[in-house]
């Protein structure tokens, strides 16, 4: 693919992904790096509309395969309309969740199966995979408590699943960590925000150095 770099963050609810990725994006920009922050599901208008449908708390009757297909559809549009063009322009794309979330949430935690969910997503992403994924590890109970404690954080349909579901999410991510040790790097997100942010930035900077990515 193009000359840019594609980095994703993943992890259970309330791990601090959005908060930290936005800070890291703005700090890297200040240092002169060509960075964009984006998120899934969403990032562009069509995918944001699909997000509203998937995460709407009143859609309790949604079938798990419908859910998986909607995430994949949102991903496809986001990829072709934003992620690929930005990578081709030489940008560092920092994306809040991507394909791993589907494999874990729909494939493992919902029980559709990791392989079938990977297959529909393979169709959606045409082999475009992240160069680096930072996995924020946290016990689901702690992450969910953070969300409940902070009123400004959106509580969505998936946040409302029982703790058992969120334990499976964490288990699923651990399986992916073992499967892709080169791409997915783990950090302990149950620490003060400043520490987690510092480690995230270091992982990203180390990777940029490894790829000889320089500020122009
Ligand atoms: N290290 C931390 N310690 C304590 N609170 C934190 C920490 N990181 C983030 N928070 C707070 O926890 C809440 C959830 O954070 P955030 O929305 O960034 O998590 P997230 O991983 O993106 O969650 P989700 O996947 O559910 O969107 C926010 O109110 C945020 O301020
Ligand atoms: C991309 C993606 C996301 N999810 C879930 C994970 C979260 O519960 C929500 C997204 O909300 P966030 O506050 O932006 O993290 O959707 C999923 O189940 N499958 C996916 O592919």
From TrEMBL:
Enzyme class: transferase
Gene Ontology CC terms, in alphabetical order: cytosol
GO MF term list: ATP binding; dTMP kinase activity
Enzyme Commission numbers on file: 2.7.4.9
Pfam family, one: Thymidylate_kin
InterPro entries to which the protein is assigned, alphabetical: P-loop_NTPase, Thymidylate_kin-like_dom, Thymidylate_kinase
Keyword list, A-Z: ATP-binding, Kinase, Nucleotide biosynthesis, Nucleotide-binding, Transferase
Statement: the UniProt record of this protein carries the keyword Transferase: yes
Domain spans labelled Thymidylate kinase-like: 9-199
Single biological process term from Gene Ontology: dUDP biosynthetic process
Catalytic activity: dTMP + ATP = dTDP + ADP
Matching CDD domains: TMPK
Residues annotated to bind ATP: 11-18
Stored PANTHER family: THYMIDYLATE KINASE, UMP-CMP KINASE 2, MITOCHONDRIAL
Protein family (similarity comment): Belongs to the thymidylate kinase family.
Described function: Phosphorylation of dTMP to form dTDP in both de novo and salvage pathways of dTTP synthesis.
Name of this protein: Thymidylate kinase
Source organism of the structure: Fervidibacillus halotolerans
């Amino acid at each position: 693919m193009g000359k840019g770099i594609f980095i994703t963050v993943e992890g259970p609810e309330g791990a601090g992904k959005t908060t930290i990725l936005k800070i890291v994006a703005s700090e890297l920009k200040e240092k002169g790096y060509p960075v964009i922050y984006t998120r899934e599901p969403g990032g562009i208008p069509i995918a944001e509309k699909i997000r509203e449908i998937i995460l709407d708390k009143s859609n309790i009757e949604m079938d798990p395969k419908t859910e998986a297909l909607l995430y994949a559809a949102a991903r496809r549009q986001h990829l072709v309309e934003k992620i690929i063009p930005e990578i081709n322009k030489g940008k560092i794309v920092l994306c809040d969740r991507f394909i791993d979330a589907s494999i874990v949430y729909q494939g493992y935690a919902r029980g559709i199966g990791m392989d079938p969910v990977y297959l529909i997503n393979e169709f959606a992403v045409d082999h475009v995979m992240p160069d680096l994924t930072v996995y924020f590890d946290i016990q689901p109970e702690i992450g969910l408590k953070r969300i409940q404690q902070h009123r400004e954080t959106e509580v969505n349909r998936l946040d409302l699943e029982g703790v058992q579901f969120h334990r499976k999410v964490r288990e699923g991510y651990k399986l992916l960590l073992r499967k892709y040790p080169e791409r997915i790097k783990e950090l302990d997100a149950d620490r003060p925000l400043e520490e987690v942010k510092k480690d995230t930035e270091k992982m990203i900077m180390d990777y940029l150095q490894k790829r000889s990515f320089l500020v122009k």
